[in-house]
Design brief:
heterodimer, A: 339 residues, alpha+beta, Fumarate Reductase Iron-sulfur Protein, Chain B, domain 2, 5-stranded mixed sheet, two-stranded antiparallel ribbon, B: 563 residues, FAD/NAD(P)-binding domain, 7-stranded mixed sheet, 16 helices, 18% strand, globular
Chain lengths: 339, 563
């Protein structure tokens, strides 16, 4: 009846290439190669620990829970940001078809030593976002006799973002942070959004201001953060939604929100974006220089510039879509206030 | 010298709750010192729920029933006055968490949702999908930011300072710079979590659950209580000890030994795989000891017969865990598992306010022992413990710190810490950190683990003395001061060796079986001789000295613990 269990456990002799760097000691980062036998089931973290325990005790990395909930061990494997603890090495070796793997620290953050980066910049930016609930007295009871009432649907509006473990993977992968280190980064805005749509909260205005100050409109929606997030929190979606609710709240006076509004209004009105006038709509009077330069260029090539594009034939179809969206959103809002 | 009114060591749920409570009115200077970042703490790993008799799901639930369940679950070793506070204050702390924004799941009426849990007579575990610990920890951290709690991240506490009567503060290592600091404080709350890592790779605990707070308290002359009680979970993944929840067995998973036999027929022919945790753990251990384990001393949790569809639909997270952490897809092959050390019932001896025998020194959470869990903790009570007693300690420390001046500090207070670091950092040795740690884990797992007996435990105690002697010769090979994780690991190992010895000694002395403590040579509970707490202090020869304190019984007389 019974059959002896013999698990299949493969082994591959591999070369683990790890970036090393100790500020103050090394001039610049360099790579060390470690040879070891990698077997089925080994995570990147186990590999690092094996090297530290048996080959080089000075190899420096962070790790704590080793079950992908604490967010300590984010780093890059073959240039992709991952959690070391929940990443199996064997499939990577097979995918890349070679026995070498390269491990480097997260990007966009200063290195403290080897694979350990300084995540304080992220925490400091987060702290400026008012990342905490400030009680809405209409919803949160005064005393501890009762809990606030909240529907599961209200909870699910921000539930995804409560999965964030502050590992910094999204920050490491972010194109906008790479371009401008002052930008707050995906997780911080997503966190600000999480509290701003919690019906128990009463502080969203302050968070709009904080998010605007730290680059709410800098995100280019490249969605790399969505790809690397180990908890699937979809930060870029939250950033998009944060922009939307800030416009809904009447904050139209930033280049980003003006651009977004021009796009949506134009498409409804004429079926396409009136690009020739965009610089002035987005940047105000400063935009004229760009328009005049563009017009001069067109004239030089014998073309006549226009400041008003024509209405496209599909415009009526677009207008119908807008009407439908308003109808659905109206229903949603109605439903919410009744519930 | 850095100065605070209240200093909290450890940033899990107990530490952050205590910090928030003592900082709430923003009149005192409060800091949390943590060897990680606050949101990394092991509280985040708690998945299932936190108990409180809110009666949202079952209107007949009361805190008194919760109280009884807790005392019974503890195998009557819990102090009943402490367990009473735990259950009576539970609804209040849960609501406070809720008011601070904790995203609990909701009932259709919009109240906090509750689910049934093992050992509980009513559904009273409040949940947030499978991440209740994570959302609680983040909520507390967020509110701490709001109210101006200071955080010292990636600092390791080296020693607790007191003058024999009152608290003075701590010495701690800033791991980024490698510098030692004294932090003067009127009150210190130790909340550093459990010591499951004394079993090293055979634990579900985080790498850092090395019992630091207990060890520094012990070395500072404070007593530890009921240390021999360590709860084992039967199904941890072979490589990492990560838990496979009971859900997998609940859905019809089989436990198979290396020969492919469904061995639970021998131990619990009726309940089979769904027997109580301790019984299943012991059954697995017996199979492996008698040579019927897999190639690496594992057994197997087999789900393959459930079929692809059922596994993908009912157990998607469990499947993902197996793929990510073990490289095994349970649809295709059995999951290799081992019992894994899960929770430390023992801790620093405190009163119901978390206060120790030194004025101004407190302990809370898994590092403290009030005691509410006695010989065995109920599921959903660990998160409750950190909230209730973190809060109590914070409140008490707040009042105390308001009433006293800063303590006076001797001049050379940093000297002993400096000597300790120096002795590890200077020179070379043959001993390897990882070897000593592995040997400790083997001693603990084989001789002071799931099964215990006098011969093994006597050996374990002797082996540990030898291991401590080896540790004294250990040198850290990495001489760099910046972020020296080898040095941190060496300091943690010293902490664990001290605690392992207390666990083994307590287990040897306690000649009965109660809750998680299971003696092959004394299989029965013995209320006549052993309805007492084990209290250990460090003797002049650096070995543990034990005495025994009575258990507080206020309402429930001990009965047989059957389910």
């Amino acid at each position: 009846m019974t059959e002896k269990i013999t698990p299949v456990r493969e082994k591959i002799l591999s070369n683990i290439r790890i970036q090393r760097f100790t500020p103050g000691k090394d001039r610049s980062p360099y790579f060390d190669n470690f040879k070891m036998e990698v077997e089925t089931g080994m995570t990147i973290l186990e590999v690092l620990r094996h090297i530290k325990n048996t080959q080089d005790s000075s190899l420096t990395f962070r790790a704590f829970c080793r079950s992908s909930i604490c967010g300590s061990c984010a780093l890059r494997v073959n240039n992709k940001t991952v959690l070391a603890c929940s990443t199996q090495l064997m499939p990577i070796l097979k995918d890349f078809g070679k026995a070498t793997v390269t491990i480097t620290p997260m990007a966009n953050l200063p290195i403290i030593r080897d694979l350990v980066v300084d995540i304080d910049p992220v925490i400091e930016k987060l702290a400026k976002m008012h990342p905490y609930l400030v009680e809405n007295k209409d919803r949160v009871p005064e005393t501890l006799e009762k809990e606030s009432l909240m529907s599961q649907e209200e909870l699910e509006a921000f539930g995804l973002m409560t999965d964030c473990i502050l590992c910094g993977s999204c920050y490491s992968a972010c194109s906008a942070v790479k371009a401008d280190s002052n930008y707050a980064g995906p997780l911080t805005i997503a966190k600000a959004y999480r509290f701003s749509v919690d019906p128990r909260d009463d502080f969203r205005g302050m968070r709009f201001q904080a998010a605007m100050d730290q680059g709410l409109w800098s995100c280019v929606q490249c969605r790399k953060c969505i790809k690397v997030c180990p908890k699937d929190t979809r930060p870029a979606d939250s950033i998009r939604d944060m922009r939307r609710i800030s416009i809904d709240a009447g904050i139209h006076d930033s280049p980003g929100s003006r651009r977004a509004k021009a796009y949506t209004d134009d498409v409804e009105r004429i079926g396409q974006v009136n690009k020739p006038m965009l610089p002035v709509i987005v940047h105000g009077t400063k935009g004229w220089a760009a328009i005049e330069a563009a017009e001069a260029g067109l004239k030089k090539h014998g073309m006549e510039p226009t400041r008003q594009v024509c209405s496209l034939p599909g415009q009526s179809g677009a207008a119908k879509i807008y009407a439908k969206v308003r109808e659905i959103e109206g229903k949603k809002k109605g439903g919410k206030t009744n519930g | 010298m850095l100065t605070y009114d209240v200093l909290i060591v450890g940033s899990g749920g107990a530490g952050l709750y205590a910090a928030l409570k003592s900082r709430m009115e923003e009149d005192l200077r409060v800091a949390v010192l943590t060897k990680v970042y606050p949101t990394r703490s092991h509280t985040s790993a708690a998945q299932g729920g936190v108990n409180a008799a809110l009666a949202n799901k079952d209107p007949t639930d009361t805190w008194e029933q919760h109280w009884f369940d807790t005392v019974k679950g503890s195998d009557y070793l819990a102090d009943q006055d402490a367990a009473e506070l735990l259950c009576r204050e539970a609804p209040e702390v849960i609501r406070e968490m809720e008011h601070w924004g904790c995203p609990f799941d909701r009932t259709t009426e919009g109240k906090i949702a509750q689910r049934p849990f093992g050992g509980a007579s009513k559904p009273r575990a409040c949940h947030a999908a499978d991440k209740i610990g994570h959302v609680m920890l983040h909520t507390l951290y967020e509110q701490g930011l709001r109210h101006g709690v200071d955080y010292f991240n990636e600092w390791l506490t080296i020693s607790l300072l007191h003058d024999g009567k009152r608290c003075q503060g701590v010495n701690a290592l800033d791991t980024r710079t490698g510098k030692l600091h004294t932090i003067q404080a009127k009150a210190v709350i130790l909340a550093t979590g459990g010591y499951g890592r004394i079993y090293w790779n055979r634990t579900s605990n985080a790498y850092g659950n090395t019992g630091d707070g207990l060890a520094i308290a012990y070395r500072a002359g404070l007593p530890l209580k009921d240390m021999e009680f360590v709860q084992f979970h039967p199904t941890g993944l072979r490589r990492t000890g990560i838990l496979m929840s009971e859900g997998a067995r609940g859905e019809g998973g089989f436990l198979l030994n290396g020969l492919g036999e469904r061995f639970m027929t021998r131990y619990a022919p009726e309940k089979m795989e769904l027997g109580p945790r301790d019984l299943v753990s012991r059954a697995i251990e017996t199979e492996v000891r008698q040579g019927r384990g897999g190639p690496e001393g594992e057994v197997f949790l087999d789900l393959t017969h459930l079929g692809k569809e059922k596994i993908a639909e009912r157990l998607p997270q469990i499947r993902q865990l197996c793929i990510d952490f073990e490289g095994v897809d349970p649809i295709e092959e059995p999951i290799p598992i081992k019992p894994t050390a899960h929770y430390s019932m023992g801790g620093i001896h405190t009163d119901i306010n978390g206060l120790t025998s030194i004025e101004g020194v407190y302990a809370a959470g898994e590092s403290g022992c009030v005691s509410v869990h006695g010989a065995n903790r109920l599921g959903g009570n660990s998160l409750l413990d950190i909230l209730v007693f973190g809060r109590r300690a914070g409140n008490h420390a707040l009042e105390y710190a308001r009433s006293v001046e800063l303590p006076s500090m001797p001049k050379d207070i940093l000297a002993s810490a400096e000597t300790r670091i120096k002795s590890l950092m200077e020179g070379e040795s043959e001993e390897k950190l990882a070897d000593i740690r592995r040997d400790m884990a083997n001693i603990m797992a084989n001789k002071a683990g799931i099964y215990r007996n006098a011969a093994d435990l006597t050996e374990a105690v002797e082996d540990l003395v030898e291991l401590k002697a080896r540790y004294k010769r250990l040198k850290v090979k990495d001489k760099c001061k910046v972020f020296n994780t080898e040095l941190v690991a060496a300091l943690e190992l010293e902490n664990m060796l001290d605690l392992a010895e207390v666990v083994a000694k307590g287990a040897l002395e306690r000649t009965e079986s109660r809750g998680a403590h299971s003696r092959e040579d004394f299989p029965e509970r013995d209320d006549k001789s052993w309805l007492v707490h084990t209290v250990a202090t460090r003797g002049s020869d650096e070995r543990p000295v034990l005495h025994f304190d009575p258990v507080t019984i206020t309402r429930f007389q001990p009965e047989a613990r059957t389910y």
